[in-house]
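User: Some background: our group keeps a shared notebook of sequences we're curious about, and every so often someone picks one and asks for a predicted structure to add to the entry. Today it's my turn. The entry only has the sequence so far, pasted here. Could you supply the structure so I can complete it?
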Amino acid sequence: MDSKKVRELTEDYIFKRVFGKKGNEDILKDLLESILEIQIEEIEVIIGAEIEKENIEDKLGIIDLKATINKETTVDIEIQVRDYHNMIERSTFYIAGLYHTGLKRGEAYEENNKVIGINILMFNVFEWKKIHSKGVLKESELNEVMTDKLELHFLELPKLIENKEEGNKRLRQWLEFIYNKRKGEIEMAVKENEKIAKAQVEYKYLTGDEKVQRLAFLRDKWESDHKSELNWEKREAEKRGEKRGEIRGKKLGEEMGRLQEKRQIVIKMLKENYEDEIIIKITDINKGELEKLKKENWKN
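Assistant: Of course. Here's the predicted structure to add to the notebook entry:
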């Protein structure tokens, strides 16, 4: 893997450094206004300080970029390059978790912030041609909104090429800049939007900075090594599962393999001192199983 390769804005580490860095709140504000089509009077980036950490193992791109807008809405912004075929479930789980933990002790339910999950994707998840899909809880027959306290947005970048008309102009310009596939469209966006021009300057600085290049490279390397290791563990677990599961057949063996794989991932994450919330989010393990694994592996 070449540590000198051109880093893309769609890489989560680079994306979060551009939009989450202290002093770049105006860039994030402009992007969010174009997506949500609202006026943002005040914005506070929650992850700003953590973005600056230099230890790649402290971060690993797992913590998403979060912000509070107008003191009443919490927004989580995630960019994904690889399709793990669980984007909808993952996003629903995560915004529900943010909503659940957002209410302070003693506060009334109605005081809880609205939570919005924004997912910018380098792949498609829906069959329809819409680039920007928005979801809230609705009454199914009447198609009436029951509550907008939980809101999901999916922006599928490959559809920019297929659908040339959809969306407001500012949003399309931001998505073209992030997608980075059409030079002419990007040049026009930079020329017409000063916030995109500022983002481009920040992006070019970051992708030329050796320290940032190194951290992004380590992020890539960790992902590749981790994936290879998990694939090996999965194969070994499935082999063991098949041997034990001859009576019940191959399906039982595969299930045992998946469970064993999950246990190994959780144990490794515990050893690396990941927070419970992050472990649950990544592995889908429930709280009871997590506590059981802790007791089994750290009896003393």
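Suggested note for the entry: The mean pLDDT is 80. The chain is about 50% helix and 15% strand.
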